[in-house]
Amino acid sequence: MNPNELIAVAGQLLGLSAQMWNEATVEVAVLVPDGSSRRFYQLRGPDRASCIAILPPDNDERGQAEAVAFFRIGSHLHRSGAPTPALYAFDPATGLALCEDLGSRRLYEQVMHTGAAQALPLYELAVRQLAGMQVRAAEGFDPSWCWDTPRYDLQLMRERESGYFLRACCTDLLAIDFDRPAVEAECARLAEAAAEAPAHFFLHRDFQSRNIMVIGEQVRFIDFQGGRLGPLAYDLASLLLDPYAALPQAMQEHLLGVYLDALNGYMAYDPRRFRREYVFLAVQRNLQILGAFAFLSQVRQKPFFAQFLRPALASLGTLLAKPEMAEYAALNHLAIQCRQELAQRS
Description:
The chain has helices at residues 3-14, 61-79, 107-114, 120-136, 154-173, 180-194, 233-241, 249-264, 271-298, 309-320, 329-345, and strands at 27-31, 39-44, 50-55, 87-91, 96-100, 201-203, 212-215, 218-221, 228-230. It has a five-stranded antiparallel sheet, with helices on both faces. Strands 6-9 form a two-stranded antiparallel ribbon. It has a two-stranded antiparallel ribbon with strand order 7-8. The chain is built from eleven helices and nine strands. It has 346 residues and is of the alpha+beta class. It folds into two domains: 3-100, Phosphorylase Kinase, domain 1 (2-Layer Sandwich), CATH 3.30.200.20; 107-345, Aminoglycoside phosphotransferase (APH), C-terminal lobe (Aminoglycoside 3'-phosphotransferase, Chain: A, domain 2, Alpha-Beta Complex). The radius of gyration is 21 Å and the shape is globular.
C-alpha cells in the first residue's frame, strides 16, 4: 500500500470526504518500529490532528492475524478502562488499524533523559495501572481474540522462552557447548514451578519501558496485541527486569511492594505466594528476553538489541542466585558460560 492508497483507505475508514482528506491535505510520516515487522505511519490531517496507522506485512497470514488481535484486544482493553490508545477503525481486508497518536515520549526515553530515580513516580503509576488492567481486563476476555496462543502455559514456556534462549542465544549466537540434557531437565522443572501460579488474568506479555508512553504525568500502554490469559507476576517482572532501563534492585523491590498494595485494592492475593511465583516467572521472562535479543541482533540484523544482552544476563544471574533457584545448578552454570563468552567477544 503506497502513501496515497493509505490516505484513501484511512479517509474512508474515518468517514471523511476525499475533498477534505487526500494526498494534498494529509501528511504521512513513516515511523520506525523496534523489533516488529509491522509498518507504522503518522497521519496528520488538514486540521493538524493526527492518528497512527498500523499495517501488517504484505501477504503475511500471521501478520494479518496479529492485526486482527491488535484491534480486538485493544478495543477490549480500552472498554475495560485500561490506559491504552483509543482505536478509531479497522479494515479487515488490509489489516489496517487506525488509533490514537500518543506522541513519541516513552518511559524508556524518560529514564534515559532523567535517570531511573527521577522516573520513579511514572513507574509507580505504571505498576498501579498494570494491576488494575490485569484484573479488570480478564473479565470478558475472549481467548479466541489471541493470534498466537490463547494463554500462557507450559508449552509456551518450554518452546518460546527457555527453548528460545537455548536455541537463539546459547547455540546460534554464542555457540556454547553445554550439558543440554541437564539444562533442559531444569528448564522443564522451572516451567512446572512457574505454571503453579494462577493463570486467568490478563497478560500483556511485553510490558516494558519501550511499550509505555508518557503523556504529561500519565502513562499509556501500547503493543498489547500479544495479550492472552496468564499469571499476574509475569508482566511485573517484564517491567522490573527490563534491560532497556536496568532498574536498581532497591527500586525493583520498592515497585514490587507498590504493585502488591495496588493489587490488594482489586483482590486478595497472598504476598508471600506472589513473591515466590515472581521469581520463577521472572526467570522465564529473562530467558525469553535473551532469546529475543539474540534473534533480533543476529537473524533480523538489528544491532541495537545486542547491547542489552549483557544487562539481561546480569539480571538472570541475580535471579538464579535467589534461594528459590538453588536447585538449578545446570542453568546457573550455563548463564555463567554465556556471560564469559559474551565478555570474550567484547
